[in-house]
Amino acid sequence: MDAIDWDDRYRATDRLWSVEPNVFVADRLGSQRPGSGLDLASGEGRNAIWLADQGWAMTAVDFSDTAIERGRRHSEEVQWVVADVRTWEPAEGSRGFDLVVVAYLHLLTDEMEPLIRRAVDWLVPGGEMFMVGHDRTNIEHGVGGPQYPEILWDLAEIVPWLAGLDILEAEVVERDVVGEDGTRVALDSLIRARRV
Ligand SMILES: C[S@@+](CC[C@H](N)C(=O)[O-])C[C@H]1O[C@@H](n2cnc3c(N)ncnc32)[C@H](O)[C@@H]1O
Fold it and tell me: What band does 181 get if pLDDT is binned at 50, 70 and 90?
């Protein structure tokens, strides 16, 4: 989907994603000492806003005007940027992040890999790459999310892009999804890696 498709999707509803942060963001990052953070493909900013509330100095980037405008209305603490993450670069002088979050961004491998490799370079020593997305096994064994295997995440494919970082976590995790027919389980890839 391109920026226009995403914008249409956002405009079709008052709020596309939840107000609460992703459960793994809250669980894994909630107790960490805040620093500077970057949320790539932030959407309406549920994670960036929550992290800013925890004291992080957040920059949030998404190519949907509508999503970023909604985020801006909710928080003036976050620095909001409308841009395509495939080509966006942080400004000189603001390249060192203590945290880079990539949540539910699903691009083809030839777009995702260079993005992640560039984002690794934006981490300061000790900084964390935090990635969560729909796992490829979710199609068969989980619920929701895109149904195209070529854009779903596969740990064996992604972890090598983080070469040189300490891998803190790389696992398929279960996330409860509450729907009209009760609670079902979605399968996500969760990867956390620290720059040494
Ligand atoms: C499923 S949403 C996830 C939003 C947010 N990370 C979250 O977890 O709530 C995917 C987001 O990726 C954004 N996106 C997709 N491709 C992008 C690109 N090339 N550059 C910037 N944003 C992109 C979309 O606009 C959308 O907001």
Answer: confident
* Residue bearing the CA closest to ligand 1, atom 4: 43
Give the integer Cα–Cα distance in Å for 35 and 135. 29
Query: What whole-number percentage of the chain has pLDDT above 90?
Result: 86
Tally of CA atoms within 13 A in the half-sphere of 56 that contains its CB: 30
Question: Counting atoms of ligand 1 from 1, which one is nearest the CA of 88?
Answer: 20
> SS3 of 22, please?
coil
**Which residues form the pocket of ligand 1, taking CB atoms under 6 Å from any ligand atom?**
6, 17, 22, 41-43, 46-47, 62-64, 67, 84-86, 103-105
How many A from CA of 106 to the centre of ligand 1? Answer: 8
- 6: left (phi > 0), else alpha (psi -120 to 50), else beta? alpha
Q: What is the mean pLDDT of the chain?
A: 95
- pLDDT of 17 over the 80 cut: no
Residue nearest to atom 8 of ligand 1 (CA): 103
